Amino acid sequence: MAKPSRNTNPKDIETGRRTFFISSHAVGHPLQTERMANLLIDVLRDYVKAKKFVVNDFVVMPDHIHLMVTLDETITVERAAQLVKGNFSYRAKKELGFQREIWQPGFSDERIWAAKVS
What we know:
118 residues; Alpha-Beta Plaits
């Protein structure tokens, strides 16, 4: 299993408000059931409610997720991905009795730059 690419320049992820497109692949197709997809959505809602980050958009596929998140200077893209993947795994095991590994290691990210309007 190869680790996903990390395209973002480390200097671009350290300061201020920034938006990222994040993808993470699952092992197999654990996200294909409505219960699992709804649990992942609930995890995202919890972090938005706690103001950890802003979820601009997301897509839940049977074997991966795409997230567009805006982070402030208090959280890194690595930490945001870790929170989502870790909390989802924990809750899937605790609440739904899911016993297998859910996520492949790592994630892919791309910084989204705002267009400058003159």
